[in-house]
Amino acid sequence: MIDIHCHLLPGIDDGPGVVADAIAMAQAAVEAGITTTICTPHMIAQYPNLPEDVVSGVDAFRAELASAGVELEIVPGGEISMDWLPRMSDDAVRAATLGGNGRWILLEVPFRGWPIHLPAMLTDLEIRGFGVVLAHPERNSSVQASPDRMREIVGRGALVQLTASSFTGDHGPRARQAAEALLRNGMAHFLASDAHSATWRPPELLPGLEAAADAIDSTSDALRWMVDDGPRALLAGGAIRPPRLGLRR
Prior knowledge:
Blueprint: E1 2-6, H1 19-31, E2 36-39, E3 42-43, H2 51-68, E4 73-76, E5 79-81, H3 90-95, E6 104-108, H4 118-127, E7 131-135, H5 141-145, H6 150-155, E8 159-163, H7 164-167, H8 173-184, E9 190-192, H9 206-215, H10 229-236
Parallel strand pairs: 1-2, 2-4, 3-5, 5-6, 6-7, 7-8, 8-9
């Protein structure tokens, strides 16, 4: 499985504070069946990480993993806030794409309120040559109140990443219900951990995948595209045409 959203790099945001904790988190990912992790530190005013620093951080931590014997492939990325994006040049955005593919960025949906400028932002990014994966919209209060507001956004070409632990109830019943609604109605494409530690919010995908399948009366095999082929296509940087997910048994 491939985890497209994970705060694994040590000491640069609200993920693990030191290398030892990050190694423990990477080992937990391997034990959970994850083979590749995209490191997506926050790019926001509180954590103004530069894409080039993320790339060098991945290189340095890759060496730490090799020394510790942890067989997890890691690649750079970033979780870009909508407020931070206007400060980034095309070159900076390109450097922050998932896996450095030059095409797809992970754009964070805020937890409260609806970003009314999002459609215009998507159009601007498309003109500049970028595609968008929206991070955890099911945890946004406005989406929880009305999941259908995502139809226009997905219709404009945005892809949607849900948090695995939303399906297991870790973010509350409203996030779980919104995640189920988005998946059931064809407005979800990827499942990721958004992990921050080995214990507090661990890098797990399978429990969320199974809970998602149970919630919509489907099977985990029917949803594997969200954690296997889909993320692989994302890393390749080309056009992505997701299958119709969420079909019943």
